[in-house]
Amino acid sequence: MRKRKMDTPPLLALIKTSEASGTPISEQLTHELHPTLSEAIRIVTAAGLQVGKPKKQSMQRVRNLKDRVGPTFVCQFADGVTTRMSVFTSLDRLDWDRGMRLSQAAYQSRWRTREHKQRWPLSVAPVPPTIVSARFEQDGKVLGTRP
To answer: How many CB atoms lie within 10 A of CB 68?
Structure first.
């Protein structure tokens, strides 16, 4: 429910004034055990409120949220495996440690997936090999590189 106008008093004030006048809104609601929807709407609109549906999220806002993808951290390990991870970081201060941790986690996840297909039960994932090169990129443009 939302207010109809700015000059209409809030619901709590309406309840207090209706109690002071001798016919509280709470009594109006409890007179009937199961009021129908139309009766409930009539009581609420008589109290000065308007009943309406909540607004749906606009498609423009949804499109804007999908466009907000952080930079991609591309990492190459010593054994030749390459991972690409989207990292939530600002473009001014790239978070290299977060990108490396996410890439190592992706490396271990790939290893577990490969091991799960071959044998069971799973063993502990090995420590990932050293990182040979790492870079941040966004839309095909390299933002920063580390050897």
So the answer is: 7
Q: What are the counts of helices (DSSP H) followed by strands (DSSP E) for the chain? A: 5, 6
**Can you tell me which residue has the tokens 């308007």?**
50
In a 3-state reduction of DSSP, which class is residue 100? Answer: helix
Cis peptide before 121 (omega within 30 of 0): yes
Residue with tokens 């609420």: 44
Per-residue model confidence as pLDDT tens digits over 89-142: 888 999 999 999 999 999 998 888 887 777 766 667 778 899 999 999 998 899
Q: Which of 11-15, 23-27, 30-34, 80-84 has the lowest mean pLDDT?
A: 30-34
Helix, strand and coil percent figures for the chain, each rounded to 5: 40, 20, 40
Q: Kindly compute the dihedral angle of the four CA atoms of residues 112, 118, 119, 120, in this order, to the nearest 10 degrees.
A: 50
Specify the pTM: 0.52
Domain parsing of the chain, residue ranges: 2-50, 69-146
How far, CA to CA in Å, does 86 sit from each of 68, 73, 96, 107, 130? 11, 6, 12, 14, 20
- Considering only CA atoms, which of 59, 51, 39 is closest in space to residue 11? 51
